[in-house]
Structure formats: C-alpha cells, structure tokens
Design a protein that fits this description.
25% strand; globular
Length: 64
C-alpha cells in the first residue's frame, strides 16, 4: 500500500521488456491497494480504478 510505480521500476522488475516512447496504463483487473502510478497515458477506466482505490496518478510528459 502506498508504493510508487514508475516506468523505471517496471523495467527493473522485468514487467516491461523493452524501451518505450510512451507507457499507457490500462484498466484491466482490480486494485485492492493504494498506489501512486507514473506513466505517460492512462485509460479512463484505469484512472477511475486507481482513484477509487485511493491512489493517485502522475502524467509524465512525452519525451521525458
């Protein structure tokens, strides 16, 4: 609970296999914990689920 998820952490953990220009978080599945998630884009359902679980999102500008 309260963990921060960033593109760099996803690469480090092996959850993203290659470099990417943009990372989009999709709203598949359910969240039962609170996370702060940083990505370039979020689907509407992902934003709603993150918010409903008490988490927050951070949009990373494209090219950063």
């Amino acid at each position: 609970t309260g963990a921060e998820i960033t593109p760099e952490i996803l690469v480090e953990k092996g959850l993203v296999r290659t470099s990417f220009d943009q990372l989009k978080v999709l709203g598949d599945g359910e969240l039962t914990k609170t996370f702060k998630i940083a990505a370039h884009r979020f689907s509407t359902s992902a934003e709603q689920k993150i918010s409903a679980a008490g988490g927050s999102i951070e949009r990373i500008p494209v090219g950063v």
